[in-house]
Amino acid sequence: MKVRIPTPLRSYTDQRAEVDVDGSTLDELFADLDRRYPGLRFRVVDEQGRLRRHMKVFVNGEAVRDLASTIEWSDEVVIMQALSGG
Questions:
Q1: Rounded CA gap, 6 and 55, in Å?
Q2: Is residue 86 part of a domain?
Q3: Tell me: the pLDDT tens digits for 24-58?
Q4: I want to staple 6 with a disulfide (CB 3.0 to 4.6 A). Which of 65, 68, 76, 81 is the partner?
């Protein structure tokens, strides 16, 4: 399946905005992302296995926080990094 990568994380994917990965859950998707692009998972998922607070994942346009959520090959997955500042 295709996963859209936010600009700040593209240094892990050789500047690719979209990458192919496998998995039937978001957790498996992030494990495969890390196999293909080492270090990327740690930027999105914390040490307790939860999405970091500043990261958002959308599956078919809906925000998802649970890494156990199932996904299908045809789903559109988008990773976004929340921006802050003043």
A1: 10
A2: no
A3: 999 999 999 999 999 999 999 999 999 999 999 99
A4: 81
Radius of gyration of the chain (CA): 12
- CATH classification at residue 28: 3.10.20.30
The domain of 76 spans 2-81
Per-residue pLDDT tens over the stretch 14-23: 999 999 999 9
Helix, strand, or coil (residue 29):
helix
- Quick check: is 31 in a domain? yes
- CA nearest 51: which of 28, 75, 26, 72? 26
User: What is the rounded CA–CA span in Å between residue 58 and residue 55?
Assistant: 10
Identity of the residue numbered 15:
Q
Q: CA 31 from chain center: how many Å?
A: 10
